[in-house]
Amino acid sequence: MAVSLLQRILQDMGEMGAAEQRIGAFVNSSPGEVIHMSMAKLAERCSVSDPTIMRFCRRFGFDGYQDFKLHLAQSLVPSAPFAYEQIVSSDSVENIVRKTCRNSLNAIQRALEDLVPKQIEAAAQLLRGATWIGIYASGISEITAIDAEHKFQRLGMRCAAVIGRQKQWMHAESSRPNEVALIFSQSGHTKQMVELAIAARSGGARVVSVTAAESPLARVTDVLVAVLPYDRTELMTPLASRLNHHLVINMLVTAIAVSSGSEFPDQLPALDSWLTDKI
């Protein structure tokens, strides 16, 4: 996986002298500001000399400061493959804001590169024809299941987010033909979700899974929407790792609305009469 320039700077910080560390810290906290700064301004901001900045740039293989700024600007543009910038305890609030937004932008960019439209189309078709949809997830993915329930119900579809192991088993084991089990799993390796898929299929229901390709869950799925898993999903589940599953829900809802002849397929308020009181 490609390593971004900002990540390379962070990795090399421990090998730098104090002056170069100040440059590295400032570049990582304010990269958008650096790309518009002259070398003299950066030197003043970091209390270093121009030769120190040149030495810093050459450390990473650049001919000079302008070359460094060009590559820094390019590294700020979301691109695939996805690289997650972990937030560390020493990050400023400014850095937390920047990393959170960049990670989310990168996640969306990677979804654009990785998602297969035919899979979205097939899943939407199966869901639209279902007499009932059971939406299954565990852990933090339960939020995704509830989001899906809310959006599908607003399309007038019969469905429910089934939360809790015992309740999930009861519903999966009583599945019937023409029903669909929609399962969300980041890794596709959660034993509970795999067993629920098998139970639902044994009752005649079809299974749509939003999960990692080539995973155990994908192998017991009728229609797969493959979402590339993120690193270390068993240890941490950052916002970016969940974002693409929510995007898939919106894609499915819109595809179903389009096939149903909705005039405003991407605007849920136009699809129902639900109104909220306003102050």
Automatic annotation (TrEMBL):
GO MF term (any one): DNA binding
Database matches in SUPFAM superfamilies: Homeodomain-like, SIS domain
PROSITE patterns in alphabetical order: HTH_RPIR, SIS
Domain HTH rpiR-type: 3-79
Any one GO biological process: carbohydrate derivative metabolic process
Keywords, sorted A to Z: DNA-binding, Transcription, Transcription regulation
Pfam family, one: HTH_6
Domain SIS: 123-262
InterPro entries: Homeodomain-like_sf, HTH_RpiR, RpiR-like, RpiR-like_SIS, SIS_dom, SIS_dom_sf, WH-like_DNA-bd_sf
Ligase found in the keyword field: no
Gene3D superfamilies named among the record's database cross-references: Glucose-6-phosphate isomerase like protein, domain 1, Winged helix-like DNA-binding domain superfamily/Winged helix DNA-binding domain
Name of the protein this chain belongs to: SIS domain-containing protein
Species name: Microvirga makkahensis
Lineage, top ranks: Bacteria, Pseudomonadati, Pseudomonadota, Alphaproteobacteria, Hyphomicrobiales
